[in-house]
Design brief:
Elements (H helix, E strand, L loop, with lengths): L7 E2 L2 E2 L4 H18 L13
Length: 48
């Protein structure tokens, strides 16, 4: 319960459209990857 609202029931989120949130997050990740030139992670140091 958060701020008087039940957000989970039986271990599942009930106050949010989880499928929509996941789809939007995927779209955001694709836009970020594209803006980064296809890379999301910093290159690792080969001599470390």
């Amino acid at each position: 319960m958060v701020d008087g609202r039940i957000l989970k029931r039986g271990g599942k989120l009930v106050a949010f459209d989880v499928e929509r949130i996941v789809a939007q997050a995927g779209g955001s990740a694709r836009r970020l990857r594209s803006a980064a030139g296809g890379r999301l992670a910093m290159p690792t140091c080969q001599g470390c």
